[in-house]
Amino acid sequence: MATPTYFQEQQGLSSLLKTPVNIALDPEAVSRIVSLPPFLPIPGALNLRVVTAPNLALNTVYRSGAFFGVSPEAFATFTKEYNITTIFDLRLEEEVSKNPDPVVHGVEIVLIPNASPFLAEKKADDTDLPSPGKRWHLSEFVENGGVDGYLKMYGNVLENTHKDAYRVVFEHLKNNIQGGILFHCTAGKDRTGILSALILELVGTSREEIAHDYALTRVGFEPWRELLTKTFMTQAESTFKEPGMLAFAGVNGINIVRLLEWMDEKWGEKGTGGVEGYLIKDLGLSANDVEKIKLRLKKRGAGGSAVKPEA
Q: Which residues form the Tyrosine specific protein phosphatases domain (predicted)?
């Protein structure tokens, strides 16, 4: 059989990324794709890849799902080979207790207490969110391809459930600690996908590229798809027969683009995008902090504003 051309590979990948999560992908195609960058071919890995963009420093940021399929030996070899010195675990305490990351000498694993992104936290003045303790209703994922439901759920992640976790990650980047960072949740889809998008947006990545990074999860979690879709159905207390379930479990790049647009409207100002505004107004970083983070993340020569000396 002839080797597919680059164009054919891209066309094939585009088709795979659009496949609903209740339909299995061609195993050979998946195996070929996850053996190539940005994926990292670590045995048993789930959705593991390096985050790449034209302006992002090489081999600095990594993302993945949980490491329950990776042996401690393979995990240690992987972190050493890619110079990963800090891992941010975005999962809930009960998720971590069931499948903790392997402990590796020289690698700091950072756990930040957080709440489930699949539960809504109602504020006193917020009538748009479901009552406390109630799961997002799948009806919110029926219209508009599920985008409205994702905006509500992801907005809650940013403002409530993972606000502290994201702050810790960006504080780490501000301090310019050497070595690569890796962050992950269970599937590497929502909590991880949002953080990856924030970082990519911060270094001036196009929305199209950010959407592609987000959508690659469709292929990245395919080897574990049956296990993960059962988890999604448990979270939603539903099956794929119920309207909205496919969108809730899916990975559509437009979801992350709409989130960034919403952030621009909520936190953006003239000359400052929504992500920068979120870091400053919601996470409590200074404008100078944000410039330090950009310098840490950007390739040399990629531009950026001057950082003011510390007082």
A: 163-200
80: amino acid identity, one letter: K
139 token code pair: 């009806």
pTM exceeds cut of 0.90: no
Residue 88, helix vs strand vs coil: strand
Give the span between the Cα atoms of 161 and 118, in whole angstroms: 9
pLDDT tens column, 16-55: 999 999 999 999 999 999 999 999 989 999 999 999 999 9
| Domain with residues 44-115+135-297, CATH architecture | Alpha-Beta Complex (3.90)
With 0-12 / 13-18 / 19 or more C-beta atoms within 10 angstroms meaning exposed / middle / buried, residue 70 is buried
The tokens describing 246, both together, are: 């496919």
Domain ranges of the chain: 44-115+135-297
Convert the pLDDT of each residue in 144-171 to its tens digit.
999 999 999 999 999 999 999 999 999 9
